């Protein structure tokens, strides 16, 4: 299962796994974009449109993998307030919504499918960011949400020894999200590069922990 599978890293990783013969469930908020992505991904793909912050949608996703689950990729996320504000100007209500999507939704989805992952000795890949560990100005809201996701992942790894838990930083990517953040997205590498690195992570199944796509790529 890959959340945020209609574009960017999620779609690129889905293509990588589909080429390996994986049966996939992908989600995204834009139903038309998700269906188009599913056709492009090819293979055995089920598209479930909706917002991961919505409990009813998460329940639908859990039903879609009721037959068994080997991998959950929590990739869907939001920047929050844009243009990105300094923390002195961060609307707290916006930050609560950011945490709902970037922290609480991944945890709730993990809780919903964890029994299936335990049964199959599966894996969880939580997509994080260097903004979780660096002090980039104006990235405090988004970065703190990713830092919270990293610590949830860290504790989950200790609590669930039979499930691999990876929290992985893809680095800068040529995506709409980076462009929305006001960065030069055109100068960044395409998401396919990070997807290839994460594909290797999924295939090699290293110990639970924090990984960087750049390190995974250089270790080839």
Count of helical regions: 8
Which CATH-level-2 architecture?
Answer: 3-Layer(aba) Sandwich
Q: Provide the CATH superfamily.
A: NAD(P)-binding Rossmann-like Domain
Q: H/E series, N to C? A: HEHEHEHEHEHHEH
* Silhouette: globular
Strand numbers in spatial order across the main sheet: 3-4-5-6
**Low-pLDDT segments, ≥5 res:** none
Beta-strand percentage range: 5-15%
- Taking the alpha carbons of the first and last residues, their distance comes to 26 Å
Q: What name is given to the CATH topology?
A: Rossmann fold
Range of helix content: 40-55%
For the sheet with most strands, the description reads: 4 strands, parallel
In terms of structural class, how would the helical and strand content be classed?
alpha/beta
The CATH class is identified as Alpha Beta
Average pLDDT works out at 96
The total strand number stands at 6
Number of domains: 1
How would you explain this protein's 3D organization?
- By secondary structure, the protein is of the alpha/beta class.
- The protein has a single domain (8-218), classed as NAD(P)-binding Rossmann-like Domain (Rossmann fold, 3-Layer(aba) Sandwich), CATH 3.40.50.
- The protein has helices at 8-19, 31-41, 55-64, 92-119, 140-159, 176-180, 191-204, 213-218, and strands spanning 24-28, 45-49, 71-74, 123-127, 164-169, 209-212.
- The strands form two sheets. A four-stranded parallel β-sheet has the order 3-4-5-6. Strands 1-2 form a two-stranded parallel sheet.
- Helix 2 links the parallel strand 1 and strand 2.
- Helix 3 (55-64) runs parallel beside helix 4 (92-119).
- The radius of gyration is 16 Å and the shape is globular.
- The two termini are 26 Å apart.
